[in-house]
Amino acid sequence: MGFCLALAWTLLVGPWIPLGAQNPISWEVQRFDGWYNNLMEHRWGSKGSRLQRLVPASYADGVYQPLGEPHLPNPRDLSNTAMRGPAGRASLRNRTVLGVFFGYHVLSDLVSVEKPASVNINPPIKDKLIEAQRLQSPTPCSLHFRNASCHFQGVINRNSSVSRALRVCNSYWSREHPNLRRAEDVDALLLGMASQIAEQEDHVVVEDVRDFWPGPLKFSRTDHLASCLQRGRDLGLPSYTQARAALGLAPVTRWQDVNPALSRSDSTVLEATAALLFSEKEVAEIRNTSLRDVLVAVTNVNHGALQPSVFFWHAGDPCPQPRQLSTEGLPACAPPVMRDYFEGSGFGFGITIATLCCFPLVSLLSAWIVAQLRRRNFKRLQGRNRQSVMSQKLMGGMKALEWQGHKEPCRPVLVHLQPGQIHVMDGRLSVLRTVQLQPPQQVSLILSSNRRRRALLLKIPKEYDLVLLFNLEEERQVMVENLQGALKESGLSFQEWELREQELMRAAVTREQRSHLLETFFRHLFSQVLDIDQADAGALPLDSSQKVREALTCELSRAEFAESLGLKPQDMFVESMFSLADKDGNGYLSFREFLDILVVFMKGSPEEKSRLMFRMYDFDGNGLISKDEFIRMLRSFIEISNNCLSKAQLAEVVESMFRESGFQDKQELTWEDFHFMLRDHDSELRFTQLCVKGVEVPEVIKDLCRRASYISQEKICPSPRMRARCPPSNVDVEVELTPWRLQCPTDTDPPQEIRRRFGKKVTSFQPLLFTEAHREKFQRSRRHQTVQQFKRFVENYRRHIGCLAVFYTIAGGLFLERAYYYAFAAHHTGITDTTRVGIILSRGTAASISFMFSYILLTMCRNLITFLRETFLNRYVPFDAAVDFHRLIASTAIVLTVLHSAGHVVNVYLFSISPLSVLSCLFPGLFHDNGSEFPQKYYWWFFQTVPGLTGVMLLLVLAIMYIFASHHFRRCSFRGFWLTHHLYILLYVLLIMHGSFALIQLPRFHIFFLVPALIYAGDKLVSLSRKKVEISVVKAELLPSGVTHLQFQRPQGFEYKSGQWVRIACLALGTTEYHPFTLTSAPHEDTLSLHIRAAGPWLVFKSSVSCQVFCKKVYFIWVTRTQRQFEWVADIIREVEENDHQDLVSVHIYITQLAEKFDLRTTMLYICERHFQKVLNRSLFTGLRSITHFGRPPFEPFFNSLQKVHPQVRKIGVFSCGPPGMTKNVEKACQLINRQDGTHFSHHYENF
Questions:
Q1: How does residue 160 score in pLDDT terms, banded at 50, 70 and 90?
Q2: Handedness of CA 102, 103, 108, 109 (dihedral sign)
């Protein structure tokens, strides 16, 4: 230990001694309060600054890692090997214990050697102090107590026993020691130490210092010698010889050469300093004062009680010690004690974490309460008579849960029993299913025998099973009794038994299972009719149970038959077809009956198919079809398109068809008349089929049935009888080509022969416009469908994918940069060694969150986005998806916030169990090592620090904003969403405060936040500068398909621009709730109008195709999935057609989502549509003169034929708006046509 103290004294004190003595400046005084720096000598350093190295560092990696095994031996091994030995051997020079402790305290005033190293010591495996069975170590040495009369006193131990000396290792923390209660006790200790001979000057160190030195509170005992060695390695101190060489001193080879040099340096410091501070008399007085004089003065003893030199005891000196102290007869040292700093904090810490996790639940509860209040107010507006209606409908019904399958959720239903029927209804009292109870059926009633006996399985032949779950067994019993009564009333026999609920579920045939079985069976039927490969038809499941196989033998109900055709059970077509096919009249359709009618549709001749249609709609069975029956037939066809014509319109269509066929004088038609009426559509009837879900029409039939439609440039009237109706201007009339007489034209070759609808040939060729719809082959392979779906997804969202890839690459890069820094480059801070996972996770997510919460503001800069959409950037950045991108960033930031919080939970826990000495090293600006060792509790980190408190508040604000911004609650209460979303101001204030404390690193949030915040603030100022005008609504009209037409006054000075949009608010709902909509009025109109659809595939978009068009011909092509998607615009197109006297606009409507074109239903509808178009020059679907097509528009043939129809035009503008897939096809077609030396097609498009 003496070597350790001497080395520290020499390295840390010695270099300043000659410099301070030789400083020529007399007016600058050296300070002794721990501040060693002065203006002249900056290299001396200062307290709290970086360690000034006057000797080279000695580290394993050269800069940081302390030397250890295998480079240097373990410090504990050195202590055990070199410094272990028996106690009780006296000093060879008779040094007293007082001299040893006085030297130690002098050294402690100059250099702190008690503080343990930051690097832990790995004790050897066989170290006795870590072995549980050997915690009682040998007794170390102790200290004597005596009075002035040389009477050595006994010492009272902690257990009230008396020993001859004070054990050092048991007196470290005893501030109220029983032997040191009075001042005289301290005097006795000093006198005893002056008479006690110290341990021998050798390598042996007493065990009180070596094994039981006071350690930190976390581990109460430590090895002082090993700790001193480890601290020197932690500081990177070289060996004593290397240090002397670095300071330019001669190396020493003997121990005697160390201490004399230290004494001479001590004398030099005293002499140099005394000359400046004291007078010669004072210096002489100081030199003549010894420690004996000090002790005599403070203890009030005479000089004879102490020897002249209290640091040594020689023979003849007063009060010799009775004996040299050893470990014999002294109490053993107290064993090491482990202290858990987190003790007693576990429950509170768990409650705090649980409370933080409950923030979303509290916000969810608040949002639910708001939604319930809104729903209650909405129900009040709907009227109060619904309760009476509900009570009437609920009579005789019971509530239950319907089990739909293992992968399907249970749904609440109401089971209503009626004579011969069981109705299953939902909460809105809409009928979900109707079960027919007809004799001689035998019903099986299976009840569950476990799990509260709540399940009921109703197994009815020719139906899929009904599984009901009840809350109580009593409710199920009531249902069973009602079922038994209903079955007996219907004359049905039934069986009843019990099964375990799991077996009951396995025995049930669900709707999904029956659908799969029926689909497979349909494919096998069609494989026989259409010669399809059996492998493509599918195979029956091999593992199906006997009860499932029985389902294959059951017959189709009317509902299942309608579902297989994709129609409703109440449709007239279904009723007619079902009645015709049900030969035995039992109300069910067997597979043989279905196969018989299927053969006629698939392989029958046109005469057989027309005869079948004739029998279907001969309702009275008299062999004739009256006009009323013909109208009913036509109405059943129109039901397919969800269209509705008035009786007058249907009567007009029937009269025109009768008149065109020469039957205007007849009221009834025979089959021959009916077939003659369909003579122009023999090709359609030839290839007419019955479209069944899951069955694909052979491609060869599709190829034979393709037709080509053209628009002629000249005036063509449909028939001589209708020529008088033709307007004087040119009218676009469709000319059809029969498939067996004419090939479809190529892009360059015109057709050689064109037949009009009544077979008359066109004598002269005119350029024709190709408008026939293109129908793609449907691939049934699941793998091919998945690949195609993925390709279309990438094609439609390639801009979105690119922007997301860039954004998340930046966010991921920021995360990885901070994570790498704190994982591998921040060891000098020490925080990584304390909390590695927590700091990596928290700092990495903090960087990404700062980036996301900053740049999310750009997605809400409406004015900037509107401006950028007009630039070329719109080709690369989907500005229309700004709101969706906003939601995606917010969702990602929420997930990262949760991870960030989890990381800080780990950090708080580790900081709460780290001693104060470690925390003062990690956070020097926050903690000061006052020696208490106790760290701050967890609640201090959560609620008494700026980062902790602001972090908790941020979690609460984010929980409120996120829950109220969800889709469900936004629909329930938009005002609640709008108000809570304005908490973003508080959010950013808390974010700035959260990082401003610089607890772990300097603030970095402003680096990301400054630019987006300035842009957002400027955009907000622009919005505030714009006018808010209250305008009265002139007209409000509810159009078909749920479209609302608003017409309001045009403000004074308003300048209309193409693609302009406005933000409107309904003052009755809220003065701050604005929604954007595109203006649909024309520039010359005196009012402004909007067309708003509440829900559905029609979306509002803001057009950026701001081109002023001055043209002589407009071809308007509207592509939609179903007829309902253009109902709202039909009035506008009709108005255009009525005002279009110069044949300026030609409208074509393409319906892409209709049943297979040549099945039975759509074939007849197609015939009626073409006949209606021919007779009245209007579409049966829309009532417009525009032509309706079934399929997708062929852009390339259309553009190619457009050049020939208008050869004098050199430039044609194409304006498309729709999904990226559609606009890409238009762009591709324009590029292909522009390669030719002809008309240039300029494409302008907008995606939404």
A1: confident
A2: positive
Question: In CATH, what is the architecture of 1027-1104?
Answer: Beta Barrel (2.40)
Which residues, 6 or more positions from 681, have their beta carbon under 8 angstroms from its beta carbon?
1163, 1167, 1170
**Residue ranges in 540-605 assigned as alpha helix (H):** 546-552, 558-565, 572-581, 591-603
- Residue 756: φ, ψ to 5°: -75, 180
* Alpha carbon distances (Å) from 1118 to 1028, 1085, 1188, 1197: 35, 24, 10, 17
What is the biggest distance separating any 2 CA atoms in the chain, rounded to whole angstroms?
160
Q: Which listed CATH number (1.10.10.10, 1.10.238.10, 1.10.3720.10, 3.30.565.10) goes with 514-540+568-694?
A: 1.10.238.10
Beta pairing, strands 221-222 & 397-402: unpaired
Q: Are 537 and 578 in contact (CB under 8 A)?
A: no
Helices H, strands E: what count in the chain? 45, 31
Handedness of CA 306, 308, 314, 316 (dihedral sign): negative
Structure tokens at 859: 């997605």
What's the CATH number of domain 396-509, 3.40.630.30, 3.40.250.10, 2.30.29.30, 1.20.1250.20? 2.30.29.30
Give Cα separations from 932 to 927, 928, 1140 (angstroms): 12, 10, 94
CA distance 1012 to 1021: 14
Whole-number Å distance between alpha carbons of 237 and 251 = 17
CB atoms within 10 A of CB 1199: 23
Distances (CA, A) of 1040 to 246, 315, 1047, 1129, 1149: 96, 123, 17, 9, 17
Tokens standing for residue 1176: 């009245």
Task: Give, in order, the Cα–Cα distances in Å from 9 to each of 3, 35, 616, 906.
Answer: 10, 17, 116, 41
CB atoms within 10 A of CB 774: 16
With a pLDDT cut of 90, the percent of the chain lying above it is 13
Strands annotated E in 588-707: 625-626, 668-669
Domain regions of the chain by residue span: 2-305, 396-509, 514-540+568-694, 788-945+999-1025, 1027-1104
Section 90-102 average pLDDT: 85
**Which residue from 200, 229, 202, 238 is spatially nearest to 79, judged by alpha carbons?**
229
State whether residue 533 is helix, strand or coil. coil
* Beta bridge partner(s), residue 556: 589
pLDDT over 70 percentage in the chain: 69
Q: Which amino acid appears at position 488 of this protein? A: K
**Which residue matches tokens 């090997």?**
81
What is the reported pTM?
0.61
The stretch 810-837 carries a mean pLDDT of: 91
Q: Per residue in 985-1020, is it b (16+ CB within 10 Å) or e — as a string?
A: eebbebbebbbeeebbeeebbeebbeebeeebeebe
Fold equal for 396-509 and 514-540+568-694: no
> How many CB atoms sit inside 10 A of residue 800's CB?
18
Beta bridge partners of 422: 417, 435
pLDDT tens-place string over residues 902-939: 999 999 999 999 888 888 888 988 888 777 788 999 99
Query: Using an 8 Å Cβ cutoff, are 954 and 988 in contact?
Result: no
CB 345 within 8 A of CB 938: yes
Output phi, psi for 1158, to 5 deg: -110, 30
Which residues 6+ apart lie within 8 Å of 660 measured at CB? 719, 721, 1171, 1175
